[in-house]
Amino acid sequence: MSRIGIGIPVRNGEKYIREAIESALNQTEIADEILLVINNSTDASYDIARSFLPLIRIVEDNSIDSIGAAWNAVFFHGTCDYIIVLHQDDLLYPEAVRTFKGMICSNDVLEIAFGRTNLISKSGAVVRVNYIEENLPMEGEDYLYRTMKGFLPGCSGMLGKKEFILQNPFREDLNIILDVEFFIRVGWLTKAKINSEIISAYRIHSESTFQSDVYRKREEDLVRWWELLESGAIEVPSKLLLDYRACLFKFIITAFLHDLWSGRRDYVYSWLPFINASIDKYPYLKSSSFTTRSYLLYSMVNSNNFGYGIASSIAQVREKLRLALLKLKKHNIKS
């Protein structure tokens, strides 16, 4: 029987770490190990963790210098065959271990699996679920192409086989989008499994590691990801390369548009040389990564200085309309 553990990377997590640990302990089927890997914490995280001894195991690893390194560390230091990753500010629901154990027992070659996730507020109130059950992808090729079109299963609450993750680790040279790169990459390395059960909760709050200086980190990460692809550091199967490049470029266009409707003029103009050079090198990206609307807005900004103001206004109006329609849809669902 495979052993299953829960791994929690911790850095200055005193605000929510107690809740995270309690959720790991409060499982209908007890995990074989609950591991906290604490790195460079200057708050009370370590003292809070110690109060749970001997129910948990603590490793202090101050060599960790990135989000990817922290996630990889729980697999390196963990002793179980499978490990559920839990962020220090998130929660596991009581059936998480039981659900994943059932998936392991029914899949001899299971290497990576996900459940659904509730997005919760700082206080723990449920905001929404990340995906409705009908929109979940199937395993294998369907999962791969859905992730390249924007499906993001979520890292907190992810089950990984230790041996597989050690051989195919999270990239430590990416930051804010390392999970997106990982989720797509594992799609061609193994058959990822998706369970319809809601097994975890992702907390949305301004102090999150992912929220600090998020926009600048996102821009740096996307450019770095592109450079890794261009240099061959990310080895994509030849049959997927065109789609993969188009997928990544679409993420870049999405970031450009987000900066446009958010009024981040400097960010918008910092994207232009990169976007122009990429289109010149790979003309097919015009049709594969742009929509008619996004190409129009890009062209307006790229044409002259007056184009930015018009394009930004159009983008802002469209975003307000999109949010209003989304709010109306949620209201109709509740009714």
Task: Tell me the total number of β-strands.
Answer: 9
Give the CA-CA distance, first to last residue.
Answer: 47 Å
The CATH superfamily of the largest domain is known as Spore Coat Polysaccharide Biosynthesis Protein SpsA, Chain A
Determine the mean pLDDT.
89
Strand % is 5-15%
In terms of structural class, how would the helical and strand content be classed? Answer: alpha/beta
CATH class category label of the largest domain: Alpha Beta
Q: SSE order in H/E notation?
A: EHEHEHEEHEEHEHHEHHHHHH
What sort of overall outline do the alpha carbons produce when their principal axes are compared? globular
Low-confidence residue ranges: none
Profile the largest sheet: 9 strands, mixed
Task: Please compute the radius of gyration using only Cα atoms.
Answer: 21 Å
Task: Tally the helices.
Answer: 13
| Helicity range | 40-55%
- Any guess at the CATH architecture of the largest domain? Alpha-Beta Complex
Total domain units: 2
CATH domain topology of the largest domain: Spore Coat Polysaccharide Biosynthesis Protein SpsA, Chain A
What does this structure look like?
- The protein is α/β, with parallel strands linked by helices and 335 residues long.
- The chain has 2 domains: 4-203, Spore Coat Polysaccharide Biosynthesis Protein SpsA, Chain A (Alpha-Beta Complex); 214-334, no CATH class.
- The chain has helices spanning 17-25, 45-50, 67-77, 96-106, 141-148, 162-167, 178-189, 214-231, 241-261, 265-281, 285-289, 292-303, 305-334, and strands spanning 4-10, 33-38, 57-60, 82-85, 91-92, 112-120, 126-129, 159-161, 193-203.
- Strands 1, 2, 3, 4, 5, 6, 7, 8 and 9 form a 9-stranded mixed sheet that branches.
- Helix 1 links the parallel strand 1 and strand 2 (33-38).
- Helix 5 (141-148) runs antiparallel to helix 7 (178-189), helix 8 runs antiparallel to helix 9 and helix 9 (241-261) packs antiparallel against helix 10.
- The longest helix is centred in the last third of the chain and has 30 residues, at 305-334.
- The model has no long low-confidence stretch (mean pLDDT 89).
